[in-house]
Amino acid sequence: MSKYRRVIVISGVLGLVVTVLIFLYADRVGEFTDTLYTAFAILCPPALVCVLLKLTGQMNDKDSFYAIWWVIGLTNAGLYAIIGAAVAALMRKPD
Questions:
Q1: C-alpha closest to that of 72 among 8, 5, 10, 27
Q2: Which uninterrupted H or E stretch holds 3?
Q3: Rounded CA gap, 61 and 54, in Å?
Q4: What is the pTM of this model?
Q5: For the chain, which terminal residue's Cβ has fewer other Cβ atoms within 10 angstroms, N or C?
Q6: DSSP conformational letter for 1
């Protein structure tokens, strides 16, 4: 695996790990302070979908809660992979 692909894969995995950590915190503790919620929104922008779904009552069921966080995790991993691809493109030496 080339160095550039490794950067992209590691970035995607990092995005998934960040989402898993936020999910575990939300599942166990359930309460966010304003500062903590702002940090989570910066680290995992797709998690803002939870606000809309919570207001509509979509996340009251545990199964839908887990399914929604699965989609958020994959979306965040993709976002981090795109950022990793941009970083990898900047790392390439011009010919």
A1: 27
A2: helix 3-28
A3: 11
A4: 0.83
A5: C
A6: -
Q: What is the pLDDT of residues 30-55, one digit of tens each?
A: 777 778 788 888 998 988 887 777 77
CA distances from 11 to 37, 45, 71, 88 (A): 22, 15, 17, 10
Length of the chain: 95
Domain map (residue ranges) of the chain: 3-91
Name the residue type at position 32: F
Crossing angle of the two packed helices 3-28 and 62-91, in degrees rounded to 10:
150
Distance from C-alpha of 43 to C-alpha of 55, rounded to nearest angstrom: 22
CB contact at 8 A, 67 and 42: no
